[in-house]
Amino acid sequence: xxxxxxxxxxxxxxEQGHGHAHDHGHAHDHGxxxxxxxxxxxxxQAELYTPLYRQALAWLAREVTDPGLVVDVGSGPGVVSCLFxxxxxxxxxxxxxxxxxxxxxARARAQRLGFADRFGTLAGDLPGALTELDYPADxxxxxxxxxxxxxxxxxxxALGGHLAPGGTLAxxxxxxxxxxLPRDIGxxxxxxxxxxxxxxxxxxxxxxxxxxxxxAEAEDWPAMLTAAGLKHTGTRSFLLDLPAPVSDAxxxxxxxxxxxxxxxxxxxxxxxxxxxxxxxxxxxxEAGVHRRQDLFVLVAHTVYTAVRPV
Length: 310
What we know:
Layout: H1 13-16, H2 35-48, H3 50-63, E1 69-73, H4 79-87, E2 92-97, H5 100-113, E3 119-123, E4 137-143, H6 152-160, E5 163-179, H7 192-210, H8 221-227, E6 231-242, H9 248-265, H10 271-280, E7 297-307
Parallel strand pairs: 1-2, 1-4, 2-3, 4-5
Antiparallel strand pairs: 5-7, 6-7
């Protein structure tokens, strides 16, 4: 379940922090992705989003006390996996992903941070690979990865089947998409980011429809968790607010996100918006994101929790 997206409400674990980039980067033919090349970008985004993840994990730590095994499903290069190891010092943490090069990065990070003695990895297609776990999880985390699977309700049931009785499943899905720019940026027609988002939504719907054996599902996550045999226990949203002027790391993230966005949906944009996007991505343009002083990063992610009945 190594997925590739960026900051979006449909993101996938790898970039987003999880490792999957959150820019709605739905690269769904994962066999074509060079994960070793992608890894530094995924790590950088996850590190940028660390304040948001730390808020979410602090909330989970009040809900889940002293878990023995924590499994990060769709972990990417392990940035969030290591945050779990830091948050729960008594837990063993397993980073599970379909991309072996990213798991190599996860192991190296755990080693650097001193977690290697209680940190493991599991490579394989998810959720099927979880059958290789030595024992059920007390806490399982899946960040923006379920929406890449054709039958999301069946995937939730499969994840729940690998929880210990009373164990918690926490899924990060939805929220509010990332905003980087004011409504009127002084070039092109105002409202560019809203229009880009609308095009992304259409592309995402087509991606879901094109998945083999895709099952249409209303995105009511508490209802889906309940239908999967779990008891919904909480919903909470967390904010990443990086106001202007941004750091170099945040500027790099915005630049990369918009570049990847152009690759994915550029052919769907009208000529005016495409020209504006190209100006934003031109390092020599004073109005571009490399130089603008009004750049910011504002996004909200929503986490849903559910427990396996005892």
